Amino acid sequence: MSSDPQYSARDWSRMSPYREPGYKSTQLRGPTQPPIVIPQTLSETTGPALGYAAVTQEDADLTMNARRNGEPVGERIIVTGRVMDENGRGIANSLVEIWQANATGRYVHVNDRHDAPLDPNFLGAGKCVTDADGTYRFQTIRPGAYPWPNHHNAWRPPHIHFSLMGASILNRLVTQMYFPGDPLLAFDPIFNAIADEDARQAMVAGFELDLTEPNWALGYRFDIVLRGRNATPMEN
Amino acid sequence: MPKQTPSQTVGPFFAYGLTPESYGRAGVAGNNLLSDSTRGERIRVEGVVYDGNGAPVSDAMLEIWQANAAGRYDHPEDSRDDVAADLGFHGFGRTGTDAEGRFHFETVKPGPVPGRGNSLQAPHISLTLFSRGMPNHTFTRIYFPDEADANAADPVLALAPAERRETLVATRLDRSGQPVYRFDIHLQGEQETVFFDA
């Protein structure tokens, strides 16, 4: 194990600061001390292999997985992409979980008080496991925008939350996928807390006609890049 | 080369997806890591997450990852034949905090695990914390107060400034015959928990 190459560091130039003035709830929650860098040991280069977690095909279809008396309302979409490392290698057999608002911008969560209707046939949560190439695929409903109390007239742009278990606890990632051409992106302090334009755009899915299924659903591609292993072996 | 996708906050509404036990559905992992056949000393780890005003954080998510009681990780990279695997223990747990900011896990006390080179690390649990208002997750370790000698020799604990080191060591309580380790997390303030970056 000691000869395995190290993971690259978290690329802080592409991340938000822990405390961002425009994003109010960071003020009391972001640590004030810089994180202490520790060596990568077996404790960090391992992580949960959730292959034992039962994931069914229906878990990846959010238009099906919560039906009660009909179809969920809204625009059906397909969201697919690859989970890969910084060398472009797919991360296989890794758990991908998503959660999102419904078409009206309302979450099933009990604390969501937005005055927009719930959809009895839509939960807004799904999961799947990447294939040998790192590819995942969900079918869902395009989420709506919703207001939040950060500042006057604040609206979150439509987004899908993604949780990636990666291959070890070092490349664990939680992120959000946004939609191309959305005018709300320019006003969102969470999206814009990331200073690097290229990094921000990496969170915006691409519309692809080739992924679109005729007479059925629009297709979007969202590739996700996790920390990878350098070619240089770990020094002991 | 592709560059890392940025992290974004888990937000306030993850529970029905990531920790759906409170919605009456099973998640991929809950806060009980034990099965009938798990080997080792059964312990409870509990605590409260506090923000910079000392107010409880009621919408945080915590994930723990640890070795089994013998000190082996359930992962292909830990292929040591001389340390026993435990088919009844995977070592991963996930939970959300409640309205008072509280969390708990039912698990076993992990064994010591190898560090870099020939070093040995004191028993510890890796902990990853997510919450609304936290654009990037934070990462720390839970050490055990009844491992004073091992803690004193631990190469990672030694990297934390001495005056902040105690934020990484749980407090032991004994309650109804079960060892309980209390580990509070302070995101800011005088007792701010030491967070790591590996």
Can you put this structure into words, describing what you see?
The complex is a heterodimer of chains A (236) and B (198). With 236 residues, chain A is mostly beta strands. Chain A contains three helices and 14 strands. The model of chain A has no long low-confidence stretch (mean pLDDT 94). Chain B is mainly beta and 198 residues long. Chain B has helices at 15-18, 148-152; strands spanning 42-50, 60-65, 92-96, 102-108, 113-114, 120-121, 124-131, 138-143, 171-175, 178-182, 185-186, 196-197. In chain B, the strands form three sheets. In chain B, strands 1, 4, 9, 10 and 11 form a five-stranded mixed sheet that branches. In chain B, strands 3-2-7-8 form a four-stranded antiparallel sheet, with no helix packed on it. Chain B has a two-stranded antiparallel sheet with strand order 5-6. The interface between A and B is large, with 87 and 75 residues.
Number of strands of chain A: 14
Tally of separate helices of chain A = 3
Mean pLDDT of chain A: 94
Task: Assign the structural class of chain B, choosing from mainly alpha, mainly beta, alpha/beta, alpha+beta, or little secondary structure.
Answer: mainly beta
Average pLDDT level of chain B: 96
Which geometry of chain B do the CA atoms define? globular
Q: Hey, which two chains have the biggest interface?
A: A-B, 87 and 75 residues
SSE order of chain A, as H and E?
EEHEEEEEEEEHHEEEE
Helicity level of chain B? under 10%
Secondary structure tally, helices of chain B? 2
The residue fraction in helices of chain A comes out at: under 10%
List unreliable stretches of 5+ residues of chain A.
none
Notable characteristics:
heterodimer; A: mainly beta; 4-stranded antiparallel beta sheet; 3 helices; 6% helix; B: 198 residues; mainly beta; 12 strands; 30% strand
